[in-house]
């Protein structure tokens, strides 16, 4: 019952009342230390009160709990050394990491905890010492791997075509070799080494990704932008395309260019995932994901309807015409592709002035240009501009969350010998088996005094301040207000605010 009450207090909107009640309940706890403590008992979701405060974004409760768990090591003047307990925060020995819970939650308030002590210092320590070097090495290794795969595709086994053409539009010159002909020369053996590296890399990608999908869940794993959801879909699809290409090569099945083309596009697009390791490029990947899965997905439905309607009209108009004079609409698939190019203004409107074009072509093309180019395309640009404005206000916050997610991912994937545990064991200071992070804090004794001075010059809510002070001020203060109002009539707004601030400062002194 006591543990349930603690979890309820974390969710209370009155945070100060919840902190006092939390402390009161813990004062009656018989097992304040050890596994029987109320603070260490998880709920049905496996969350302790401390982790629940992070998931819900309750920064007041989180700071309150951290203040209870810290140990002052020594103090000398304004310099203080503090040991913060990071037992539940550190993801090194946690199955359900506190950091991973924060970045995977949908509440924006939870990401503000990443700027609080000691979470900020812990993430910075992990990222600078181990995360950034390993991530940069992984990015370089992946780029070399993609270069190897690309070269294998460029020099894939082809041979000249031997059969005759069956159509005047047939432009095929080379065809794919059979399996027995593909690995004969020395150059084929070099390509075979690259293909084996490519296939082994695809299998490793699947082996590393599938356990995380089963542990986190497909909806959260693929749906969270911060966790790299779209990039996980891309890299898994890429690995599957590699395996499909391998099967088609072993069975001598024609058409391997289809999965190979998809794999090349997806593999090189996944390089953008490694931009999250750099503060200059990381926020842009977030904007791209927001635009693709927000504005562009909705816009594509409207675009598909417009293209389908006008492509059908163009095909019907040129169905009776000679395709040699204007071949952009000679069949229905080509009409769809040409209309798509016209929609994005990639090409100009097809025309042949040596022959007479149908009258309805001019009418339909005029309507298409007004609706597609002038209306819908500019609507998409406006939507993307609005998304960019919204994401720009929180891009730094999202980038820090990306760094945390990347750090936790690397910590789980790499062996323990390559990533030692961060912090200091409490046994060195007689604090048990808990792990602590040592942080030096400089306390400025004049900080509160300077805050009073700065508050005196703030011009916000001055009217409310005057209304509340009228009931408590003496006659001298009343005379002061009349004098101040007279001064404000004769001076501009900035000088009145400055004079008002000096008078408030003089009176407070």
Automatic annotation (TrEMBL):
It is found in: Membrane. It is a multi-pass membrane protein. GO terms for molecular function: calcium channel activity; metal ion binding. One of its GO terms (cellular component) is plasma membrane. The chain crosses the membrane at residues 134-158, 192-210, 231-251, 257-275, 296-318, 359-381. Keywords: ANK repeat, Membrane, Metal-binding, Phosphoprotein, Repeat, Transmembrane, Transmembrane helix. It comes from the Eukaryota. Residues 135-394 form the Ion transport domain. The lineage of its organism: Eukaryota, Metazoa, Chordata, Craniata, Vertebrata. This is TRPV5 protein. CDD domains: CBD_TRPV5_C. GO terms for biological process: calcium ion import across plasma membrane. It comes from Climacteris rufus.
